[in-house]
């Protein structure tokens, strides 16, 4: 393999170039090459200035993911940065593409920076539970002050070249060839006496001492309950930039980085990062030929259909939207128009973009208008008979080779597919609400689904910027099956002595944005009520059944939309506990002869989590989920599972599988079937393995 870092001297300028495709990640070989070439450029008397550049599509876009979580071999990045910064000859970074993380830090350690107009710069480490470890926390605030530095590091969002220029983080913008522009700058700097300008000596960001301290205090207050240690550490390190000498600040940054990197949160976030990338590796993709999707049809313009149409329009597809009557169609189109109006009003898109997207939408009440469509996504009522009727109509009009995807939440896709003449074209594309925002897409593979249809689903997900996960046919697929277990565990505790507010608070404390009863109130209690009714006939008589939800629904208290559910929503100042629900709960306890007991926050969290992990393990054993990490991706992207916990399977790994299995076994005396540990626990435990090893 050719060297990942090369050095050439043009007149008196040394050009050090990184070439480590695809994104010039800062692997050990790159860091070593950089250290060596920087040193030889410094010791070459013919060299008066050094330009640092990268081949291919980008300046280094970050660390090498394969080295994540492992001890770094020297030279570590901060040593390379130190060499660049302490160089007696001026160093100039020529930045194009995405200079992220360590890549941006490398540029920051240079004395001058030239960036291509299209470049993006960012410090996204917080998204992996760590912080910039190459001096970023010390150098950025010295240039831009605490507020802008913290925005960059706490959001992890990249900024444009223009913004970087405005902030003073870079010195010059290049319109075309950034390496040429950097060479020109090098010649000017040489002509100007070859002045170096180490970032560590810059003070403009530190001059407003009070403003700096206030920005720190404000972020610290805002983030005081953030469970991610790296968030607090970023704030501490930026504060250190003001109160400690540079070297001491760097040492603090290094210690904080090491501490965060080996902690459970960063471990979980790295798992989430890799799990998402693994999820797209599914057997159907091997050797598959994608079906061409140019025109998309959506049937049903309700909550989901409208959201799915928006997602497709946003991705550049023309969409034919079908409703059963004119009123329904107008309501659906109005939802879509309102969405774009809101996006324009909030400045997310400009008016012309909104209009262009809407111009690709055709509304109709005639199924025949779907004849030219390549892919139809059905999102009509969750009712088997309604869906069967719609499938029959679609079978009659769809072109040969067209894909028929259903957005059903629970229904048996094989049973639906069996009712039409082309079961091989039927698949589940299960979106989550709001469909244009939520990232998850479960691609549900039926017994007869053609591999090409599955592969096309993964390709569509990529175009819609969704995170796809393969699921097999099962009631609720992966996500809603795990959700059902979560809710059942919560309902048992509710009937045994906890309150909805206590359970919700415990799960929020764990990191969920809202608790299970808040979710029910938001989504509508009638949806899960309908599912319970549908499954009533299949329920084993010995299984414990909690009827509290049914009793609430019988009152018409369907949640937020009805003003009442587990909480009362029609009062000023937000939802409050519903005393009538508490009365229903008490009455149910009395009927069941249950003496209420108290539950600690930890017990509530463990029962909910272990129930989810156990259901996830069952899904893996049944082949509904390909691997435990897919269960995690589903929960992370579709159900608000806190990212710093990595998903229920990761949480079980971190708790220890033996601990989880023992807890499940203990609870089995209460509900033998529900709490029965999946056999996967024993299989893994006896081999000294974890879910993460599968
Ligand atoms: P919705 O009730 O808001 O919308 C359904 C729409 O389908 C209505 O506008 C209705 O007029 C239309 N429709 C009914 N029969 C039709 C026909 N024969 N031809 C054309 N249009 C027809 O329901 P929602 O919530 O959008 O759900 C739709 C599907 O998506 C269901 O299968 C549901 O289980 C699933 N789903 C729902 C989620 C949610 O959070 N609401 C999440 C994921 C999936």
Automatic annotation (TrEMBL):
SUPFAM superfamilies (alphabetical): 6-phosphogluconate dehydrogenase C-terminal domain-like (SSF48179), ClpP/crotonase (SSF52096), NAD(P)-binding Rossmann-fold domains (SSF51735)
Record-level Gene Ontology MF annotations: (3S)-3-hydroxyacyl-CoA dehydrogenase (NAD+) activity; enoyl-CoA hydratase activity; isomerase activity; NAD+ binding
Cited Gene3D superfamilies: 1.10.1040.50, 2-enoyl-CoA Hydratase, Chain A, domain 1, NAD(P)-binding Rossmann-like Domain
Subcellular location: Peroxisome
UniProt KW Cell wall biogenesis/degradation keyword: no
Coiled-coil ranges (or none): none
Chemical reaction(s) catalysed: a (3S)-3-hydroxyacyl-CoA + NAD(+) = a 3-oxoacyl-CoA + NADH + H(+)
Domain (3-hydroxyacyl-CoA dehydrogenase NAD binding) ranges: 296-471
Primary localisation category: other
Domain 3-hydroxyacyl-CoA dehydrogenase C-terminal, chain residue ranges per copy: 476-567, 606-689
Single GO BP term: fatty acid beta-oxidation
Known pathway: Lipid metabolism; fatty acid beta-oxidation
InterPro entries: 3-OHacyl-CoA_DH_NAD-bd (IPR006176), 3HC_DH_C (IPR006108), 6-PGluconate_DH-like_C_sf (IPR008927), ClpP/crotonase-like_dom_sf (IPR029045), Enoyl-CoA_hyd/isom_CS (IPR018376), Enoyl-CoA_hydra/iso (IPR001753), NAD(P)-bd_dom_sf (IPR036291)
Entry keyword set: Fatty acid metabolism, Isomerase, Lipid degradation, Lipid metabolism, Lyase, Multifunctional enzyme, NAD, Oxidoreductase, Peroxisome
Keyword set includes Isomerase: yes
Membership in a protein family: Belongs to the enoyl-CoA hydratase/isomerase family.
The protein's name: Fatty acid oxidation complex subunit alpha
Organism name: Aliiroseovarius pelagivivens
Gene encoding the protein: fadJ_2
């Amino acid at each position: 393999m050719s060297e990942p870092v090369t050095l050439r001297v043009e007149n008196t300028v040394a050009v050090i170039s990184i070439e480590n495709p695809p994104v010039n990640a800062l692997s050990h070989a790159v860091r070593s090459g950089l250290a060596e070439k920087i040193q030889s450029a410094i010791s070459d008397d013919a060299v008066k200035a050094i330009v640092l550049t990268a081949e291919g599509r980008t300046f280094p876009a970050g660390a090498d993911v394969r080295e994540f979580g492992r001890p770094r071999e020297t030279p570590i990045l901060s040593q390379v940065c130190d060499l660049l910064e302490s160089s007696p000859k001026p160093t100039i970074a020529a930045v194009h593409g995405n200079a992220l993380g360590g890549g941006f830090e490398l540029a920051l350690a240079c004395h001058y920076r030239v960036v291509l107009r299209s470049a993006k710069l960012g410090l996204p480490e917080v998204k992996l539970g760590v912080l910039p470890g190459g001096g970023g926390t010390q150098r950025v605030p010295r240039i831009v002050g605490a507020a802008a530095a913290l925005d960059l590091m706490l959001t992890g969002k990249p900024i444009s070249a223009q913004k970087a220029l405005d902030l003073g983080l870079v010195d010059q913008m290049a319109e075309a060839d950034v390496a040429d522009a950097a060479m020109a700058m090098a010649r000017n700097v040489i002509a100007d006496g070859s002045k170096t300008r180490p970032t560590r000596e810059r003070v403009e960001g530190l001059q407003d001492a009070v403003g700096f301290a206030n920005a720190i205090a404000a972020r610290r207050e805002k983030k005081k309950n953030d469970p991610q240690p790296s968030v607090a550490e970023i704030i501490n390190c930026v504060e250190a930039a003001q109160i400690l000498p540079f070297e001491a600040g760097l040492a603090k940054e290094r210690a904080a980085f090491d501490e965060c990197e080996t902690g459970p949160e960063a471990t979980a976030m790295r798992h989430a990062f890799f799990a998402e990338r693994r999820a797209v590796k599914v057997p159907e993709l091997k050797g598959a030929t994608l079906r061409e999707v140019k025109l998309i049809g959506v049937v049903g313009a309700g909550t989901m259909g409208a959201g799915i149409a928006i997602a497709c329009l946003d991705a550049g597809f023309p969409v034919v939207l079908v409703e059963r009557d004119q009123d329904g169609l107008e309501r659906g189109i109005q939802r879509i128009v309102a969405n774009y109006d809101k996006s324009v009003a909030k400045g997310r898109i400009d008016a012309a973009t909104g209009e262009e997207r809407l111009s690709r939408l055709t509304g109709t009440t005639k199924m025949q208008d779907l004849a030219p469509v390549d892919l139809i996504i059905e999102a009509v009522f969750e009712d088997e008979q309604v869906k069967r009727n719609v499938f029959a109509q679609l079978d009659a009009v769809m072109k040969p080779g067209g894909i028929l995807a259903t957005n059903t939440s629970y229904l048996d896709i094989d049973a639906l597919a069996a009712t039409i003449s082309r079961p091989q074209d039927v698949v589940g594309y299960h979106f989550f609400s709001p469909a244009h925002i939520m990232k998850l897409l479960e691609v549900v593979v039926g017994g007869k689904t053609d591999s090409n249809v599955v592969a096309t689903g993964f390709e569509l997900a990529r175009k819609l910027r969704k995170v796809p996960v393969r699921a097999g046919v099962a009631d609720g697929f992966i996500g809603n099956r795990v959700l059902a277990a979560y809710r059942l565990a919560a309902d048992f505790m509710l009937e045994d002595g906890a309150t909805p507010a206590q359970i919700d608070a415990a799960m929020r404390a764990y990191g969920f944005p809202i608790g299970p009863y808040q979710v029910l109130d938001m989504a509508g209690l009638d949806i899960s009520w309908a599912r319970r009714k549908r499954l009533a006939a299949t329920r084993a008589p010995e299984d414990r059944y909690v009827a509290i939800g049914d009793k609430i629904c019988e009152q018409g208290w369907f949640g937020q939309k009805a003003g009442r559910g587990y909480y009362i929503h029609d009062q000023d100042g937000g939802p409050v506990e519903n005393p009538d629900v508490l009365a229903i709960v008490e009455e149910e306890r009395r009927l069941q002869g249950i003496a209420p007991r108290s539950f600690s926050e930890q017990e509530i969290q463990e029962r909910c989590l272990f129930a989810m992990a156990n259901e996830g393990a069952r899904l893996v054993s049944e082949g509904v989920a390909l691997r435990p990490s897919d269960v995690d991706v589903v929960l992370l992207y579709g159900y608000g599972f806190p990212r710093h916990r990595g998903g229920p399977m990761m949480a079980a790994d971190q708790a220890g599988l033996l601990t989880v299995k023992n807890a499940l076994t203990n609870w089995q005396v209460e509900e033998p079937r529900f709490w029965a540990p999946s056999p996967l626990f024993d299989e893994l435990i006896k081999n000294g393995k974890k879910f993460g090893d599968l």
